[in-house]
Amino acid sequence: MERFTYCLANQLVKDYNIKITLFIWDYPERVNWGKWDPNIEFKIVPYSKYHQKKLAKLFYWNWSLWNNPDAYLINFIYHGESTLPKTSKLYYVLHSPAYLIPNRYKLISKLYHKFNKFTFISVSKFVKETAEYYFNSEKNIVINHGLDFSLIDKKGCYNQNDKLKILTVAALESWKGIQDVIPLFKFDKIKQNFEYHIIGEGNYHSEIFKLIKKYDAENFVFLKGKKNEVETLYQKYDIYCQLSQGEAFGLSVIEAMGAGLPTIVYNTSPFDELFPSDELIKLDLNSKNQLKHELLDLLIADRRKMIGLKGQKYVLDTYTIEKMANKYYHLLNH
């Protein structure tokens, strides 16, 4: 959500000269997201170990009186957001499907009625569908994420004399599907031709580590931990694989495709709606051997290049930061 806010705010100011003020919470260690447009104003809730929630309500309420904005674009509706004026025009961006965070959706469904003008924005049709139980779908529109692909290093060479490196960038959670890739390393032909690198952290780490040991894959599957500036790393790999089920959008998939990597996903939501089947490799969820066969087919450099460049062209044409900002601009001015 922080990256979404950073990219969208900068692009709206750049393309449409919108006046933007960000209400944010301070923390002992601030995240450096890059260079902000100098015309973006920041209002920061002071850090407090025990009282920051109360401070947020006080500061948001006070700021809303002084700023009197035309609209609020929010990622949460908890403490500070709940104190915004009832007459405000609010747009709430839904970044996660409802089944992952049902308690948050229940809270949202109770609070949003207090505002006179409230619109939901889902980052994919899948997110909108999961929210229908909680909100009126007529108040929920879809705007897909967009990326600044100039920040992503592109793959230049598809020839590889060594083992091919498969990459997944994801939180270590069971629903991310990492455990569906590791068992392939029981096959000698997979061990001889591939390595699997996993970038991310999470509470599923110990289970993944046990699985690596179970298949004697310590020399072939590598847990790389958290990495900064992942946008520069994709081009060092040969194949991107993300077998998650239930992503809201799948930014890492878009980034990998933007870098030119041939990409493998399950043919489930939201990927079934976001990509035509000929732009990447979609696996049948119930297939036991399809992933192995697809990886072995990708040993051919020309096939990797063909799929990688085709997917790259599609996302560079479809999921740009400019298109996303344009849709938000027209919505906010509607």
Q: Report the helical percentage.
A: 25-40%
C-alpha end-to-end distance: 24 Å
Average the pLDDT over all residues and give the rounded result: 94
Number of domains: 2
CATH architecture of the largest domain: 3-Layer(aba) Sandwich
Structure class = alpha/beta
How much is the radius of gyration in Å? 22 Å
CATH topology of the largest domain, by name, is Rossmann fold
Number of strands: 12
Q: What would you give as the CATH superfamily of the largest domain?
A: Glycogen Phosphorylase B
Q: What is the 3D shape?
A: elongated
Short description:
This protein is α/β, with parallel strands linked by helices and 334 residues long.
Describe the secondary-structure layout.
Blueprint: H1 2-16, E1 21-25, E2 41-45, H2 52-67, E3 72-74, E4 89-94, H3 102-111, E5 117-122, H4 125-131, E6 140-142, E7 164-169, H5 188-193, E8 194-199, H6 205-214, E9 221-225, E10 239-242, H7 251-259, E11 263-266, H8 271-274, E12 281-283, H9 290-297, H10 301-318, H11 321-332
Parallel strand pairs: 1-2, 3-4, 4-5, 5-6, 7-8, 7-10, 8-9, 10-11, 11-12
Helix pairs in contact: 1-11, 7-10
